[in-house]
Design a protein that fits this description.
By secondary structure, this protein is an all-alpha fold. It contains eight helices and no strands. The model has no long low-confidence stretch (mean pLDDT about 80).
Length: about 190
């Protein structure tokens, strides 16, 4: 039981690592993320993870080699994304050039300040939905893999929800400390 709990916690952390960067980036740029916006982002991650896990669980019941295929798929996607980050290249150029929505979602991940569309320094509900869509992309892959692996939906989704809230908040706090450390003498 503790092993499965540890795996669920690990998945929650891994699925939300980008949230840490989002929180940090917003604080450094003095963009506030109200609690309700953070909660909405976390709910979107929870729903996305639950849906992806249910799809993975369904496929694992139909295909006997689904666990192996799922593991290979997760490894391949991880390598593909890592390669793109190492090369500083968009490895999905056709999707990026053809779809305004995909281009905007990728731009939010690369430059979180673009989500503050009205430039008022506060992430409102509409902007939180855009951020939630961007950050939920990680949850699709991890949720699908967790479902293929036969993990229970409830602990994984609760972990993803909790760590979504926490990592954005921790990133924000790290940004406050970084700002104070670098610019505190000017106050």
């Amino acid at each position: 039981m503790y092993k499965l709990l540890g795996i669920s916690i690990s998945i929650g952390i891994i699925a939300n690592l980008d949230n840490l960067g989002i929180g940090l980036s917003y604080e450094l740029q003095k963009i506030r993320i109200p609690l309700f916006s953070n909660l909405l982002i976390a709910i979107m991650s929870l729903v996305t993870t639950a849906f992806a896990m249910l799809m993975g669980t369904f496929l694992s019941k139909i295909f006997p080699l689904a666990n192996l295929v799922g593991a290979l798929l997760l490894i391949a996607i991880g390598l593909w994304i890592s390669l793109g980050k190492l090369l500083h290249k968009n490895l999905f150029p056709l999707a990026y050039t053809r779809s305004k929505l995909i281009r905007f979602i990728i731009d939010i991940i690369n430059n979180p300040a673009k989500a503050d569309r009205n430039t008022n320094g506060i992430i409102g509900i509409n902007e939180a939905v855009l951020i939630g869509i961007s950050l939920s992309l990680n949850c699709i892959v991890t949720g699908f893999g967790a479902g293929l692996s036969g993990l229970s939906v409830m602990p994984v989704t609760i972990s993803v929800f909790f760590f979504s809230l926490v990592t954005i908040s921790i990133g924000y706090e790290l940004g406050i400390k970084a700002n104070f450390r670098n610019f505190g003498h000017l106050t």
